[in-house]
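lol ok so funny story. i was supposed to be doing the assay writeup but got distracted and ended up predicting the structure for this chain instead. priorities right. anyway since i did it might as well share w the group, maybe its usefull for someone
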Amino acid sequence: MDPFKNMQDWKKNMDNFFGEQFWSEFEGILKPPIPQINMYQSDHEITILCNIPGTNEIKNIDLFVDYASLEIQGVISLPAHGNLVQEEISQGAFDRSIELPFPVRGDKVEATYKNGLLTIQLHRLITKESNKNRVAVRVMDED
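and the output, tada:
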């Protein structure tokens, strides 16, 4: 017996009663945002690790830096190996905005992708100028 089947039925009933927008308030709780990230901060740098599995075409991932925010867009597409029985790895198109703890330089960002992890290095901005910049991602060689 699938324990989540009853939850899906319950959700449909709630949608009918409260309307489709009812669940938007709980989106981050019920379904974690993708891509999942870890953010690390030092005095003048921020390092962000993004979990983006199954990406063969890194050109399909877009990063934008604008003052104190980072936007990550792309698609997580995992290969099918038959009929899906259980799904825990989030996949599909994503567009995630992340508020940063301090403004960063758009001209000094480094992004690398290796083994399903996108690593983004950002450096503190000293001035208050805002410029949204696209960041190039490069693939790291396998060791």
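The first strand starts at residue 36 and ends at 41. Residues 3-18 form the longest helix (16 residues).
back to the writeup now i swear
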